[in-house]
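User: Before I run my own analysis I want an independent prediction to cross-check against. Here's the chain; please return only the structure tokens and, at the end, one sentence I can use as a sanity check.
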Amino acid sequence: MPFVTKNPSYYLSALEEDSTEPLHVGLYLAGSSINEKRARDLLALGKAIHGTSRPIRCLWLRFRQGNESLLEAFSAFGEELVGAMTIQSLVFEGKVGTAEVQCLRGFFTQNDLRCLQFRRTNVDISTFVMLKPFFTHTSTLKVLDMSSNSAVGDECVSEVLESLLEGKTKLETLNIGESNIDGQPDDDSRVSGSGVASIASFASKTPSLSSVTLRLRHLDDVGIGEIALVVRSKDCNVRRLDLSGNFGNSGVKIFAEALKTNRSLKTVSFGCYKNLNDVGGKILLHVVDPI
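Assistant: Structure tokens:
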């Protein structure tokens, strides 16, 4: 687990150092109330990040249950980050929704972010509608990780990927995963077969994409077929695929056929929750290079 602290002042001296060594900044944001000193320290940290020339390798924001006082202090922190160009990676984790992300709206208008992650959060379609200007204008984003977010479904996936395509994205890594892949099959927030098709379409239109991880209940034999179409294309540049879902031998057979003509893939991982057995494994062995 990455290091996070409740004490924002922990990083102030490091941010004042004349150093080019990237710094990790991790904050644990929680509590029923936030006292005046902690609010001042959070504000001071925002000012220090904005003013430093030291690269921030990652700003990791781990949220737990809070109230309006925490949100108010975090909003003030976010205002200080507007124009901060040294943050390379931003991670939202935990009890994060649109209100929390909204606090950094100004920062999202001007940045050099290379990586954006949403991990086990409560973000939903309203979050990504709000972030559309960022996704359509970013020229630096290389990694997008949307792993284990309970309210991310087809609408969210479509909104994000369409916005990235509109901005002629140079994305290299895309991770989309559900928190409970074997939960209720009729959950409206899930990424459906249509969502899987949207992801495959995005991959086919994004030549910069080199790594894709999908962990989805509705990644079935049909979905694997959609991915196989991308893999079969002569324009495919994906080097790494990590696929988990409810596909079986039929889907793997379709994928194996696509591998026969693919020249870019170096690593493929399958995580199947039903139907796949030695038959599927043997099919793959017939087409992969043992070396």
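Sanity check: The longest helix spans residues 36-51.
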